[in-house]
Amino acid sequence: MLWGFIEGLLGHACPGCGGPLDAPSLCRACRAELWPKLQGEMVYLGAYGRWGRVVRALKYGRRFGLAPLLARPLAEGVLQAGWALKGVAAVPTLLPRLLQRGYNPPELLAREVARLLGLPYRRVLRRRRYAPSQPTRGRARRALPQDLFAPVERVEGAWLLLDDVLTSGATFLRAREALLMAGASRVYGAFIAVRDPGALGPYR
């Protein structure tokens, strides 16, 4: 309550609904809507139309307190799904962007999820090049180079791959392919929000 009061004095509105903060980082009403949704081999919190402001607050607003709040329902979804995981990884960003921002939002989330699940978090992948934002529709996977990501170490067993938003599925697919190249036997996905529900279909 104290942190919510301080954030209110600083002019911070709830990033979930834009209303006043009555709890740290996210208001109580928005917290009540944080529950996992499972579809196939994916877990997510909801549509981008609902949680887009939360994603942007974490990604651009440096609202780091959101990461543990969002990680908890995602971890609960993983436990509900019963996935036997060996570790957790995140979709990486380019090094210049990481240096400029100072952090990678999916990594913040992935570290928290790993901690809650009692699993190791590892930087298994690196991003090799820039790629433009993906369209909401069309799922233009072939528009992205196959070597967009590269593994930097070997892993084994099933892994959870975190990203903040699933848009067309193209970026996640390339990162998933790289994680499989690293030795993962299976790759599950976790996201804050989904732009295109059709991108939640099974990946081949």
Q: Key features?
A:
204 residues; Rossmann fold; 2 domains; five-stranded mixed β-sheet; 7 helices; 35% helix; globular; PRTase-like; Competence protein F-like protein, phosphoribosyltransferase domain; ComF/GntX_DNA_util-trans
CATH architecture of the largest domain: 3-Layer(aba) Sandwich
The counted number of beta strands is 7
Radius of gyration: 17 Å
Structural shape: globular
CATH class of the largest domain: Alpha Beta
Q: Enter the CATH topology name of the largest domain.
A: Rossmann fold
Helix and strand pattern = HHEEHHEHHEEEHE
Number of domains: 2
- Numbering strands along the chain, what is their spatial order in the largest sheet? 1-2-7-6-3
Quote the beta fraction: 15-25%
User: In angstroms, what separates the terminal alpha carbons?
Assistant: 47 Å
Sequence stretches where pLDDT stays below 50 over 5 or more residues: 135-141
Count the DSSP helices: 7
Mean pLDDT: 87
Main beta sheet: strand number and arrangement?
5 strands, mixed
InterPro entries: ComF/GntX_DNA_util-trans, PRTase-like, PRTase_dom
Organism: Thermus aquaticus (strain ATCC BAA-2747 / Y51MC23)
Protein name: Competence protein F-like protein, phosphoribosyltransferase domain
Family: Belongs to the ComF/GntX family.
